[in-house]
Amino acid sequence: MSSAQAVDGSKIYNEGGGDPAAIACATCHGADGRGLGPAGFPRLAGLSPAYLAKQLADFKSGSRDNPVMKPIASALGDEEVKAVVAMLSAMPSPETRHVTRVDLADSPGAVLALRGAWGRNIPECVACHGPGAVGVGDHFPPLAGQSAEYLSAQLNAWRDGSRKNDPNDLMGHIARSMTDEEVSAVAAYFAGLSH
Ligand code: HEC
Ligand code: HEC
Fold it and tell me: Which residues are heme c 2-binding (predicted)?
């Protein structure tokens, strides 16, 4: 392949990268990029390219320690990362219910999501993740459109220290301040926004 030849993000996604260890992403993340909830495979469609590239770098460095994604991320070249994240961010986001901060917080998950638990320095999730948790800019990923399995796995990864890739321990602090019940409740709440 000549170096001038453009790297094809869709080809990497659907067929794999140049290194065979970079398995086709679609196998797990789905042809539509919406993941496979019960298996813990997250949605990637519509996420910011900078956020996606950061996660791939974090899997590679181990600051986000995951045995499935580490070999895959490590096998992608820089140009391949650029191409696949550009393609993913252009894929349509799933429809999610748009709640606002003034919505009724009528369950423990909704209370944490929309009001927080300031007594324990837990800000409301939507303060950073945006109204309806649709994500904000390059740093704050969407929580809506992800499964309860994936969301709780991430909160638990921060609690056990296997994920420590967030700036200033923002999420680590929050996750460690939460109880098991709160992790399940808030994960179910955000997963429920994408019916
Ligand atoms: C064998 C299944 C599998 C394959 C193939 C796979 N992934 Fe993943 N991916 C996962 C799992 C599982 C996670 C969640 C890891 C965790 O819990 O931290 C994940 C997470 C991610 C994340 C983090 C998303 C977020 O919201 O933070 C990105 C980015 C990602 N994968 C990109 C890719 C790309 C690009 C490819 C193809 C080159 C790929 N994955 C191939 C299973 C897979
Ligand atoms: C002060 C800002 C802030 C607040 C408040 C916040 N988050 Fe986050 N959250 C972040 C940042 C930044 C990231 C991305 C970290 C990284 O770079 O990987 C993140 C990532 C996440 C992820 C991983 C998403 C993915 O795709 O892998 C989950 C799950 C999450 N937050 C849940 C929550 C929940 C639940 C709450 C409320 C209890 C919350 N967050 C409140 C800043 C915040």
Answer: 125, 128-129, 171
